[in-house]
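I hope you will forgive my troubling you with a question about protein structure. Here, with my thanks, is the record as I have it:
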Amino acid sequence: MDAWTRCLERLEAEFPPEDVHTWLKPLQADQRADSLVLYAPNAFIVDQVRERYLSRIGELLTHFAGFGEVILEIGSRPRAPEPAPLVAPSTGSVPAAPVVPFNGNLDAHYTFTNFVEGRSNQLGLAAAFQAAQKPGDRAHNPLLLYGGTGLGKTHLMLAAGNAMRQANPAAKVLYLRSEQFFSAMIRALQEKTMDQFKRQFQQVDALLIDDIQ
């Protein structure tokens, strides 16, 4: 078992599970001869880890590995180069079919860049950002954002959807209000078209439902 895995197990015992999943689990470790490099997906997580956990990680690393130098960087752990795939002889280029944009009711004005961050919504911001960076990851799937009025829940939801579309323009991201979803379900029950109702939602890559209370 490597030093980072043992450190993470100890941190899981010392800190709340939601903190571990939000700030520590996204880190990727690269252990070197006398240091540990932790790669974070964004600067926000780097700042939080440095402020709240770095000193404790250094203590645990000294205990388990004999050294305590921890380097925080933004990015991903370097991967070993993969062998080049065999390329079949070309039989003539076939133009790719144009990608038809999916109309998912997203408002492009809502982004993480223009989100107003405060102490009351830091955790929601980090979770929504992680969900957008790694759609389908079990740590944030499903993701439920809840809180009082004006904390930015709808903004974060739409920002996550827009970030997914920016990373993958072909992604089918659908935003609905709860009453729209409920009305469609009732209509499907009345018209006995539940199979069609299910299929239309199974075909999307991300489903965003607002005001589910």
The helical segments are 3-14, 17-24, 43-52, 54-65, 122-133, 153-167, 178-191, 194-202. The first strand starts at residue 28 and ends at 31. The beta strands are 28-31, 36-40, 70-74, 173-177, 206-210. Residues 153-167 form the longest helix (15 residues).
